[in-house]
Amino acid sequence: MNAELLKALAPQLGTPSYIFDLDEFERRAELVRRYFGEKTGLCFSIKANPFLLGRLPEVFDKIEVCSPGELTVCEKTGVDKSKIIFSGVNKTEKDVRRAADDEVGTFTAESRLHVELIDREGASRGKALPVLLRVTDVKGGSQFGMEEREVLDIIDHRAEYPGIEIVGIHYFTGTQKKKAKPIERELEYLSGLIDRIKAEHGFTVGRVEYGTGLAVDYFDGDADALEEARLASISEPIRALAEKAELTVEMGRFFAAPCGYYLTKVIDAKTNYDVNYVIVDGGLNQLKYDGQLQGMQIPRIVHIKEQDREDGVKAWTLCGSLCTTADVLARGAEFDSLAIGDTLVFCRTGAYSVTEGMAVFLSREMPAVYYYSEKEGVTKIREMLYSDVFNTPMV
Predict the structure, then answer these.
(1) Which terminus of the chain faces fewer neighbouring Cβ atoms within 10 Å, N or C?
(2) Longest CA span, the chain
(3) CA end-to-end distance (rounded Å), the chain
(4) Predicted confidence (pLDDT) per residue in 103-122, tens digit
(5) Given the DSSP bridges, would you call strands 41-45 and 246-251 parallel, antiparallel or unpaired?
């Protein structure tokens, strides 16, 4: 979405608000498909932006769901439940039963307990529920997944779990990987693991769900080119693994980040000890960039003037509406004739920003949310919400 289109749309959107460009989202998904090939399935991790779930491009084969709340979003949106990979480190018996009731396509198991819970639920229904066993990061592990030896032990004793069908493995170690080498090493590890499981444990790994963790560049003017180069750098090993097993690449940030725009209005302006400050009607409760530290890095920001004027270029510290000195969105951002009433549009906010902020801090309003497409124009999908609804006493 270019600056001229944003300027044209801003008056009808109001502030604070988010708008997600569905055409841009689809182009991004198609770009990934082009590099990874038709044999590689694509999975959208909806924690990055659940608002996009209702308008997922057809290129997505799977949807990763990591909580009961995200499952509710899927139920209300009416998505094809067979596409759901029900993931998440915290699964309860109730969660597993509900997902089974929804007939989700696949479960992931991040622990022996998960295996047992899913097994009992499947056995009670007289069926074997499809399960991907998650392997933790081989570089040292984390709270996610299981050590390889635990996964192999479960595979060796799979006959003891009649309520599950182990269909493959799940591997994701983290996000914002800027270099190809770590991803190449992970793909090499997965390829070798598939071979060892077959040779040493007599089991064929039919499916692999792999999260690349490809990085998004929030503060670089050449972001699109840098990110496409990352896709190209890992496309060959991705395609090779897809020849060995049914491969699904799971990503959220990389798919969604470029399609989002956050609009906020300048409410006040002042100078304290030679530093120019503006106060906007949004803040860090609604806007979050991965890697942003106290506003020291400046993303692309489109300046929309309420009135034409020429007062000269100045550097500004952009602050939100919260009562904390931490609420700084950018320091030293330069604008020509920035003034009260102007609108600032923060770009590349399509992933996490809309869900990761401290939404109810200070009981500020939650932004309205819109879709945009060239064919359909602007569609409002959420009115502005006021967080007093969270603080109303129950009587």
Answers:
(1) C
(2) 76
(3) 47
(4) 999 999 999 999 999 999 99
(5) parallel
Which two structure tokens, joined as six digits, stand for 319?
């602050």
Residue owning tokens 């841009």? 24
Q: What is the pTM of this model?
A: 0.93
- Please check whether residue 154 is in contact with residue 111, taking contact to mean a CB–CB distance below 8 angstroms: no
Per-residue pLDDT band for 362 (boundaries 50, 70, 90) equals low
In what helix (H) or strand (E) does residue 149 lie, and over which residues does it extend?
helix 148-156
Label residues 325-334 b or e (16+ Cβ within 10 Å = b).
eebbbbbebe
What was the pLDDT predicted at 385? Answer: 76
Q: pLDDT at position 293, please?
A: 74
The answer, yes or no, to whether residue 304 has pLDDT greater than 90, is yes
Q: What is the DSSP string of 301-336?
A: EEEE-SS-----EEEEEEE-SSSSTT-EEEEEEEEE
Tokens of 44: 């959208």
DSSP 228-248: HHHHHHHHHHHHHHHHHSEEE
Checking if the pLDDT of 387 tops 70, the result is no
Cβ contacts of 39 within 8 Å, gap of 6 or more: 239, 242, 243, 247
**Dihedral angle computed from the Cα positions of residues 207, 215, 260 and 269, in that order, rounded to the nearest 10 degrees:** 150
Tokens of 114: 């998960």
For the record, the structure tokens of 48 come out as 């990055």
- The residue to which tokens 């060959």 are assigned: 236
User: Over pLDDT 70: what percentage of the chain?
Assistant: 97
Task: Specify the DSSP class assigned to residue 146.
Answer: B
Phi, psi angles (nearest 5°) of residue 364: -70, 160
Cβ pair 303, 318 in contact under 8 A: no
306, 280 in Cβ contact below 8 A?
no
